[in-house]
Amino acid sequence: MTKHFYINLQKELKNHIFDYLLLFTAGIFFLILLNIFRGQRTIEFFVLVSFAFFYIIWGVYHHIVNETLHLKTVVEYILIAFIIIFLLKIIILP
Amino acid sequence: MEKIKTFIHHLFIPHEENNFRAKSLHTDFLTVYVVIAFLMMMVFKQGNIHDVLGFATDISVEKLYQLTNEQRQKNNLTTLSLNPSLTLAAKRKAENMFQENYWSHYSPDGKTPWDFILGAGYKYEYAGENLAKNFLFSNGVVDAWMNSPTHRDNLLKKEYTEVGYAIVNGVLNGEQTTLVVQEFGKPMVAGEATKNIPVVPNKPMIEKNTEQIVVQKAVAPKVNFLNFSFNLNLIFMSFLILALVLDFYFASKFNVIRIGGKNTAHLLFIVFVLIGLFMSTIGTII
């Protein structure tokens, strides 16, 4: 199982190296900002929301570049982002 | 049994009947998750279940006391007993930090931890203080103290025999904050009262550049709701990760080409958020 997973994961990352590097860099920035503003709950939540919105924009950009943009795809990114925002709001900003 | 198998297959494995996309990742299912997450958020907010002010903490005196003594036992030291005067000193110290707007071992007008301890009627031979803020769980507080050499020395000082705690929630510039004060002490024995003391206590740690305005309120929550919601979050995210991994694997294996979001990106996003979730449980100590 792992062989299939890794081969295809590598293939996906290699084919879109710039896009994934961009998302990865944003993720690192997200963690750095969380660390800087650790304990400041409103700012932590704002950082999370910003990362979630970046992720939606990243999804739209990625699919535009690959000419695979579809309304269903955009909705999928939005839904996943909002699931995460709502879940983490319980912890960060009750 | 067969029905359950079919359902799980339909839920996680992309095949013809679910349009070659795990049903658990279909837009309608994702919408249901959003609604569930939103309702959970509202229930937790409206229910005000974290505590009376709605602070997200799961720190209790009992747990801090237990964990502190466990650490001392591990290091072959005597356990500490809870002292009401030290508890009062910790409470007053926290109150003073709110009133005078500081986050330090020393108040802006020069009050030391020893002033609070003596002021609470505790005459000490040795005394010390550890502070922490914005942790979510008791074990996070004690772990952070144990990972800091100066706080560790305080926590494992063999001279101490008693301890007192205050856990106080409040607001700093609109920010909800939980403050933990831990006061250590060894009472002066009666015969030594004529020795013209206080003996110089161990030196507390100072942080200069932190602003803190807190309104005092509340003690630890009665029920472990934060732990519950934290675990619920982990279960929810683990479920999503499992669905994404299985869908990605089987779609690759069967060479399925379909319209939809990238599982790799979703996974990366959720993993970063999970790391962030764990980071948010860690506060600061001085």
TrEMBL record, chain A:
Q: Where are the transmembrane segments?
A: 20-37, 43-61, 73-92
Keywords of the record, alphabetical order, are: Membrane, Transmembrane, Transmembrane helix
UniProt-recorded name of the protein: Uncharacterized protein
Species this chain originates from: Candidatus Roizmanbacteria bacterium CG07_land_8_20_14_0_80_34_15
